[in-house]
Amino acid sequence: MTIRKGEPWGEPGRQLPRHGVVVHSDEEARQIVTAARRAGEPIPPLGLVGGDLCRTLGGPGDEDRLRSDRAVTLPVDLGSVLIDGRLFWFVAHLVARRSWLRGPVTAAMNAQFIGDWNVAPKGHPNDGRVDLLEATLPLGQRLLARRRLPTGTHVPHPQIRERRVAAVQLELPKPTPIHLDGTYVADARTLSIRVEPDALMCVV
Known about the structure:
The protein has helices at residues 26-39, 52-56, 139-148, and strands spanning 11-12, 21-23, 46-48, 72-83, 86-90, 93-97, 105-109, 130-135, 160-165, 167-180, 183-203. It folds into two domains: 11-76, no CATH class; 81-197, Tumour Suppressor Smad4. Strands 1, 2, 3, 4, 5, 6, 7, 8, 9, 10 and 11 form an eleven-stranded mixed beta sheet that branches. Helices cover 14% and strands 40% of the residues. The chain is globular. The protein is mainly beta and 204 residues long.
């Protein structure tokens, strides 16, 4: 069940089970998810020791903690996207961009962070939605927003459209490189994004 305001989230002391998989990055987690989904098998619990989703969940990156009484197990949403008739998944974020410095940028955030940037400061990885940010900024405004990204103060901004969606179809102006969890997967103009609530069990 997705998180509700005022309710506790996660289970302190619940350790990574034996069949769980330790992952060191968002891309590694995405590969585990993809392999399980393509095989029609359950996604194993993920022990997070690195990546933007790990940081969002407050994970310290300590592998020993995952199988100790200090572990915390949390249900987390999963993003999926249909690109040219093929289904992909992402655990932390989808980014459509040619460059950070010019052209449109679209980000669908399940995690709060992209590297050092606090892209979705109000986002939550278990609210049944992704935070969708769409921006086409002139260079001066883009550089200013970029300086503010580490603190999350780039929003609100009149030229950055923010919305929280469970599902959305996007039409990009032209074929654009699509990056899932930091890895390029394809160029696309049409994206059908959907959130799968509670699809992941993550341990930090």
